């Protein structure tokens, strides 16, 4: 009985081992290799209108339709052989994608099965690596291909912007002394950069697309520089201007409370009327000073990007500081001059008092806002 039981257990284990080996061999044989494993039987297709593609020193106009197969790829219907380019950096050098030896699935401790085929070297089509890099065209990348050279991927946000500027400049004449950015470190990329610039022919489609992108980048750079300069100015004048405005608000509140009743009543006493006239002049001075503070803070806040002008008229002028300053000074001067000329009239005195009150509240709002940053 013991012999029969032992043979039975041994037979079951042997059968299980045979079934396991058979299933593993089926899985190994079913795994696709090379390009098929990466992208399937139909290969990979990239369609995009973004980015810039240069092949052998020539700009390829967008939109792009790039198809990859086993040993070639097509760009807008034009075939290119994989052997024409140096794709060695995409070739897997043993041990799978990460160069590690896969662990065997033995019964104990991970030993290999007998007869298991070594997986130290995994077949990998370099075109799949090229396809991954060329897919970055969807994100605005610049891809440069040249025969017998490794492909080069450049981002416009880095030194690709300089490359486009240099290529656009070739429209005015050939460039012989090429300056390669320090960020381009490898000898192959430096040579590829130089060869592209020296032999490049700037076509109309390229100039149109690159010019649009360069203008956008210049606009962004100009805006950033203006905001940085305004931020530095705000840091320099923030504290003294806030203190001055705070003192001005305190003085204005006291002045308005002192002459509120007398300004809004009909006074027949000559001495009192002279006092009210003087208070009206003081109110106009306060209005002028607060208008200047409001103008400075408005310009600085707009330049730093911390404020949006809600005044429909001011929003049209604020993009040009000179126009806004001219408009503000002209309107404020005319208003103050008119109220000063009519200061003996009760209506003009009341209008001056209310203008001073509005400017006081506005300045108090500015003081509250800037007190958070000084």
What does this structure look like?
Helix content is 58%, strand content 9%. The strands form 2 sheets. A 4-stranded antiparallel β-sheet has the order 1-4-5-6, covered by helices on one side. It folds into 2 domains: 32-158, no CATH class; 226-370. The N and C termini lie far apart (95 Å). The protein contains 11 helices and 8 strands. It has 374 residues and is α+β, with helices and mostly antiparallel strands.
Largest sheet, in brief, is: 4 strands, antiparallel
* Order of neighbouring strands in the sheet with most strands: 1-4-5-6
Overall average residue pLDDT = 77
User: What is the H-and-E element order?
Assistant: HHEEEEEEHEEHHHHHHHH
Cα Rg: 39 Å
N-C termini distance:
95 Å
Percent strand equals 5-15%
User: Unreliable runs, pLDDT <50, ≥5 residues?
Assistant: 1-7, 24-42, 93-122
Task: Bin the helical content.
Answer: 55-70%
Specify the structural class: alpha+beta
Number of strands: 8
Number of helices: 11
What count of domains describes the coordinates?
A: 2
- Write down the overall geometry: rod-shaped
Keywords: Membrane, Signal, Transmembrane, Transmembrane helix
Signal peptide: 1-30
Transmembrane segments: 237-260, 281-302, 322-342, 354-373
Protein name: Membrane protein
């Amino acid at each position: 009985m013991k012999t029969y039981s032992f043979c039975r257990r041994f037979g079951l284990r042997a059968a299980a081992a045979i079934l396991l080996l058979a299933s593993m061999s089926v899985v190994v044989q079913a795994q696709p290799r090379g390009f098929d494993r990466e992208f399937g039987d139909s290969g990979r297709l990239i369609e995009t209108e973004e980015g810039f593609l240069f092949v052998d020193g020539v700009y390829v106009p967008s939109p792009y339709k790039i198809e990859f197969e086993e040993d070639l790829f097509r760009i807008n219907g034009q075939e290119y052989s994989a052997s024409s380019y140096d794709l060695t950096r995409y070739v897997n050098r043993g041990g799978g994608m990460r160069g590690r030896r896969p662990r065997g699935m033995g019964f104990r401790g991970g030993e290999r099965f007998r007869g298991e085929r070594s997986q130290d070297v995994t077949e990998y089509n370099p075109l799949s690596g090229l396809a991954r890099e060329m897919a970055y065209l969807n994100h605005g990348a610049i891809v440069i291909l040249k025969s017998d050279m490794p492909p080069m991927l450049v981002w416009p946000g880095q030194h690709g912007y300089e490359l486009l500027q240099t290529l656009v400049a070739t429209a005015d004449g050939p460039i012989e002394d090429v300056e390669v950015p320090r960020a381009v470190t490898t000898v192959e990329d430096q040579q590829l950069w130089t060869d592209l610039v020296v032999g490049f022919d700037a076509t109309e489609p390229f100039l149109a697309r690159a010019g649009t992108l360069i203008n956008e980048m210049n606009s962004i750079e100009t805006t950033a520089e203006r905001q940085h300069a305004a931020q530095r100015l705000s840091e320099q004048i923030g504290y003294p201007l806030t203190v001055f405005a705070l003192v001005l608000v305190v003085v204005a509140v006291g002045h308005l409370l002192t002459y509120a009743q007398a300004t809004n009543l009909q006074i027949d006493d000559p001495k009192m009327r002279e006092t009210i006239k003087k208070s009206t002049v003081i109110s106009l001075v306060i209005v002028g000073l607060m208008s200047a503070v409001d103008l400075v803070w408005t310009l600085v806040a707009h330049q730093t990007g911390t404020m949006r002008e809600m005044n429909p008229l001011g929003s049209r002028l604020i993009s040009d500081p000179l126009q806004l300053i001219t408009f503000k000074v002209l309107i404020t001067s005319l208003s103050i001059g008119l109220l000063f000329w009519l200061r003996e009239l009760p209506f003009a005195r009341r209008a001056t008092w209310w203008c001073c009150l509005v400017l006081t509240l506005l300045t108090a709002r500015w003081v509250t806002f800037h007190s958070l940053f000084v």
